[in-house]
Design the sequence.
């Protein structure tokens, strides 16, 4: 933050606060376009392998815990709601509400990550970590043989599972960091009805990360022979 | 003759001094210069690798380097030149310096992100240099699996991470340009009045924004595969090595347009200025940039005609590849037509621009051989490919880059360089370039595969010719480096507009003040309105 | 003495002529447009050179007629080239039915070639002139590429799947073949020679009269080797010819449409047979239990090819298809 920003409310390269706000929003949209292509590449690769190894990918999907996935979906949708309310509170200038909603969003986000960590640990215990420790046994192995899946191909599924959910979790962690900064700034009273674009831009990011999960959940958990 | 320091006004170079004032600057002009220094250094690194390769290939037995070392040289050359020179060269140096000035803005929309992009580039470049010094990488710049994921014993992981990181630097630059061009144009500067340099950078930014993340994800998958070996690209574990090529070329073909579109923008500026004419068919030239950017995303499969992809996929990719040739052809005709009845001066930047048109024409036309299926089968993977893309990338992009540097040098440095030397250098580069790369077309047609550390006797004559040309080309590149640095101290001061050019960047002193303009300019006419008033040389 | 600069590679296959005609046409197009552009630039730059600093060139915004012309003319040329070149490519995508089939395995950094009659060669390939020859290829490690410039044919050689090329040599002689896909340290050394011979000479060579050092003295046919392997691995225990074993009979299975237990139907081509040997649990024939063990790691790519050749020799429904086949 340089001097002119403090004095006049907008950075020196902009004509006015309006232009700054528009630039910030457009910048975030452009960034999200990048993100879509980033996850798009992954989704494309996932689709190709799913088509090639359908039984293995369906079996892999059965080895995931549907209840935990569904629970996390609800948690994330809830966090999108609190985020939207936070943006609203910023627009109307209600500082206490703003801080509360940001904290709520962070709690829900953390809850999601906690559940995710629990799921990962479960996969570790069951030796379903591709590359490092992939040796399905017991009930898991039975499932794999019952559906004629082929262990290497199921490992491929878990590659994508960990990579896609891991990338998503990384985005969540970054989102939590951004929210923490936002919280500090809101408590300091940096935002007003005239200046709330950081809240709005962070909100865009948070909703995007939620939407990615809305695609991941059915792709990984639901469409796996559980019709 | 020794000219005094330019102290007549406060500008971006003398506003403050010291290393910190550069390393922590958010001024787009200073960041442009930081990039200029870094990409020039990387160009020398990549050039050194090329010199060693050409020396090795003088003799068919290739006794200078071990085959393994040779492989590391061409990989280094490709990786450094593409990711660290050609992609950032024009956008991050000239684009950074000029985009805000050409649209009458004080800076880019996000100056700190702009600085961040340079640091990101720097981290990527340093990691690459560490990898090179620490044994190098031998996969070629294409990192094809499963060689890169399973078999290579070199620093694939480190270089992959470096390329991944550098990708973010171009994403950040592209994002900044898009927002700036959308939101920060001066009053009166409508889309149809934008200089073509801006249109070209807008199209380029779209590709940077939408293509680079796919490369990023591909490189992460490659890194994961190398660390965990879980089988994503390994057929023994059910993976598909060709998936890598699809993902890689989905970015890397559009990346070619990241390298050439800005060059086309530069050439449009040069041709109009030095013939004092408005561009012939402004709208067509502007929209052809966008057409190239969009179509560029649909032709990646033409890199894979001989991988055994389906015949029908081949037909579609071939048709689309022919289609993308047409907007480029239109541009060439329009530039040439712009010269008609102009008032053409023969200053050094113009010589580079004319060289660009000629060489780009040849590079583009030889692309037809590769879009055409039957001939591609023979020419794919040979020196024909090498010659073709060097005509586009060196004959095209580097010619335009040097033309642009010469054109805007008075604006950047406030000094003029010796014009005679500059024209001489342009001529040497043109001759050296053709001598180096034309024989490679013949080599390719004769069937010499690329990336060979040694080769059968019958290819020697043409290889010797090519190496001889490379030495001329090397001298050609050294000359501007010397006189441009010389001019920083000894060049005569340039006025605000030494060429009588029309863009907004010429309406402010050279070098420009930190905020570019004393007051925000108001635009009342179209770009290149050279007929509207008398030309004043200041 | 001034060295002679070569301009054209040997033209020694039926395809080469077609490809060269397109090449020649495209060269013509390139020269024509390059000359036009260079000449126009040179003419304008001299004729309209700046004579005074106060010149004021006329305002020309553009010309619809001209712009349409130079959009349509290149477009038409590309259409012509596309149609012409694609038809040549398409026409040559499939080998003639009567092709003689040779197997090739690429590995870092050598080519191993296997004749149907048995002889095996390293980095050498002997073929008869005027006979269509199909080479079915696979790789043991990384991606290679089999390229014979004089025949204008080239195809990547991939691990885990089969690709193929075909050619019909028109001139006897020796021609290079290269690896054209970078494959590691000794990539440049992965080259060899095709010897195109008169049919009589080829027959004599096959009989062992004039074989080189790279050949084995007494070679069994590839089918015979496959049969031996078939017995040694115990395949015949389950795949009995009468179809009463635990596995399906393999007689006349090649080229047949096979119904799988997941309801799909596949063609029993080289790729399917290979997949069934290496990953038998994936595509199981309807009516049989998925109990066949995998032979992944127990048989080399070469041995897989021998097994396939043996299965083919048990009779086939029709000539195999070619192109890339995913296992």
Sequence:
């Amino acid at each position: 933050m340089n001097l002119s920003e403090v004095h006049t409310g907008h950075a020196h390269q902009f004509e006015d606060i309006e232009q700054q706000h528009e630039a910030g929003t457009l910048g975030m949209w452009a960034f999200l376009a990048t993100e879509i292509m980033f996850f798009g590449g992954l989704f494309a690769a996932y689709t190709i392998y799913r088509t090639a190894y359908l039984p293995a990918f369906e079996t892999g999907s059965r080895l995931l815990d549907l209840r935990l996935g569904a629970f996390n979906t609800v948690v994330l949708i809830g966090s999108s709601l609190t985020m939207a309310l936070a943006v609203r509170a910023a627009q109307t200038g209600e500082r206490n509400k703003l801080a509360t909603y940001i904290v709520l969003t962070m709690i829900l986000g953390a809850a999601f990550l906690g559940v995710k960590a629990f799921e990962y640990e479960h996969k570790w215990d069951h030796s379903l970590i591709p590359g490092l420790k992939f040796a399905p046994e017991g009930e898991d192995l039975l499932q794999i043989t019952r559906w004629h899946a082929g262990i290497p191909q199921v490992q491929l599924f878990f590659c994508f599972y960990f990579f896609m959910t891991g990338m998503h979790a990384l985005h969540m962690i970054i989102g939590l960091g951004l929210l923490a900064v936002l919280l500090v700034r809101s408590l300091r009273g940096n935002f007003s009805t005239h200046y709330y674009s950081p809240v709005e831009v962070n909100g865009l990011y948070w909703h995007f990360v939620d939407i990615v999960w809305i695609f991941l959940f059915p792709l990984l958990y639901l469409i796996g022979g559980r019709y | 003759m020794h000219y005094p320091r330019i102290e007549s006004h406060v500008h971006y170079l003398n506003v403050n001094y010291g290393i910190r004032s550069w390393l922590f600057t958010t001024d787009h002009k200073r960041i442009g210069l930081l990039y200029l220094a870094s990409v020039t250094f990387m160009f020398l690194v990549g050039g050194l690798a090329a010199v060693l390769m050409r020396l090795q290939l003088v003799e068919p037995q290739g006794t200078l380097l071990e085959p393994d070392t040779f492989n590391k040289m061409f990989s280094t050359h490709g990786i450094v030149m593409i990711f660290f020179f050609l992609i950032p060269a024009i956008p991050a140096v000239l684009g950074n310096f000029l985009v805000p000035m050409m649209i009458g803005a004080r800076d880019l929309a996000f100056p700190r992100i702009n600085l961040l992009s340079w640091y990101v580039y720097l981290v990527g470049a340093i990691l690459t240099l560490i990898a090179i010094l620490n044994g190098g990488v031998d996969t070629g710049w294409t990192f094809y699996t499963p060689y890169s994921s399973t078999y290579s014993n070199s620093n694939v992981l480190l270089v992959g991470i470096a390329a991944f990181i550098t990708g973010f630097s171009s994403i950040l630059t592209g994002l900044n340009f898009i927002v700036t061009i959308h939101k920060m144009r001066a009053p009166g500067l409508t889309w149809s009045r934008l200089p073509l340099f801006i249109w070209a950078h807008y199209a380029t930014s779209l590709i940077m924004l939408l293509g680079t993340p796919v490369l990023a994800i591909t490189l992460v998958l490659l890194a994961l595969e190398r660390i965990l070996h879980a089988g994503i690209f390994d057929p023994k574990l059910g993976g598909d090595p060709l998936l890598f090529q699809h993902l890689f070329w989905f970015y890397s073909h559009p990346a070619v347009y990241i390298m050439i579109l800005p060059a086309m923008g530069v050439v449009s500026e040069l041709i109009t200025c030095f013939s004092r004419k408005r561009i012939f068919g402004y709208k067509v030239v502007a929209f052809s940039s966008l057409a190239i950017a969009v179509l560029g995303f649909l032709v990646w499969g033409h890199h894979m005609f001989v991988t055994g992809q389906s015949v029908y996929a081949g037909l579609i990719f071939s048709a689309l590849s022919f289609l993308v040739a047409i907007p480029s052809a239109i541009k060439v005709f329009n530039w040439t037509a712009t010269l008609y009845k102009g008032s053409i001066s023969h200053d050094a930047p113009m010589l580079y621009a004319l060289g660009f048109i000629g060489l780009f024409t040849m590079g583009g036309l030889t692309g037809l051989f590769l879009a055409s299926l039957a001939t591609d089968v023979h020419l794919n993977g040979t020196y024909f490919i090498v010659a073709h893309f060097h005509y586009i990338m060196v004959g095209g992009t580097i010619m335009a880059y040097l033309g642009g540097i010469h054109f805007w040098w008075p604006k950047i440095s406030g000094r003029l360089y010796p014009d005679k030397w500059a024209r001489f250098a342009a001529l040497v580069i043109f001759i050296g370039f053709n001598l180096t790369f034309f024989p490679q077309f013949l080599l390719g047609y004769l069937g010499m595969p690329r990336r060979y550390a040694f080769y059968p006797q019958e290819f020697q004559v043409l290889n010797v010719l090519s190496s001889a040309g490379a030495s001329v080309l090397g001298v050609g590149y050294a000359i501007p480096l010397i006189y441009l640095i010389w001019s920083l101290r000894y060049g005569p001061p340039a006025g605000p507009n030494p060429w009588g050019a029309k863009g907004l960047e010429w309406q402010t002193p050279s070098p420009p003040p930190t905020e570019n303009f004393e007051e925000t300019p108001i635009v009342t006419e179209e770009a290149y309105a050279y007929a509207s008033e008398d030309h004043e040389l200041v | 003495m001034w060295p002679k600069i070569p301009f054209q590679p040997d033209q020694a296959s039926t395809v080469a002529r077609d490809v060269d005609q397109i090449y020649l046409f495209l060269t013509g197009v390139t020269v024509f447009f390059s000359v036009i552009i260079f000449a126009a630039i040179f003419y304008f730059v001299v004729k309209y050179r700046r004579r005074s600093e106060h010149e004021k060139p006329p305002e020309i915004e553009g010309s619809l007629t001209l712009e349409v012309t130079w959009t349509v003319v290149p477009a038409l040329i590309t259409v012509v080239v596309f149609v012409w070149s694609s038809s040549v490519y398409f026409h040559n995508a499939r080998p003639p039915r009567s092709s003689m089939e040779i197997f090739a395995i690429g590995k870092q950094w050598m080519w191993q070639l296997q004749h149907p009659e048995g002889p095996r060669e390293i980095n050498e390939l002997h073929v008869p002139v005027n006979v269509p020859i199909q080479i079915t290829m696979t790789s043991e490690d990384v991606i290679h590429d089999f390229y014979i410039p004089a025949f204008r044919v080239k195809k990547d050689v991939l691990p885990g799947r089969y690709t193929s090329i075909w050619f019909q040599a028109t001139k006897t002689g020796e021609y290079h073949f290269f690896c054209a896909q970078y494959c590691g340290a000794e990539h440049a050394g992965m080259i060899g020679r095709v010897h195109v011979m008169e049919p009589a000479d080829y027959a004599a060579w096959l009989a062992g009269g004039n074989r080189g050092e790279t050949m084995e003295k007494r070679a069994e046919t590839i089918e015979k080797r496959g049969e031996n392997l078939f017995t040694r691995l115990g395949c015949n225990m389950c795949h009995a010819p009468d179809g009463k074993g635990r596995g399906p009979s393999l007689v006349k299975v090649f080229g047949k449409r096979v119904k799988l237990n997941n309801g799909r139907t596949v063609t029993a081509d080289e790729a399917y047979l290979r997949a069934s040997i290496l990953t038998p649990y994936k595509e199981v024939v309807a009516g049989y239990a998925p109990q066949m063990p995998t032979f992944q790691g127990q048989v080399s790519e070469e041995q897989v090819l021998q097994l396939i050749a043996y299965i083919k020799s048990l009779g086939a429904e029709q000539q195999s298809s070619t192109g890339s086949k995913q296992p």
About this structure: Confidence is low (pLDDT under 50) at residues 318-327 of chain C. The longest strand of chain C covers residues 100-107. The two ends of chain C are 56 Å apart (CA to CA). The CA atoms of residues 119 and 219 of chain C lie 5 Å apart.
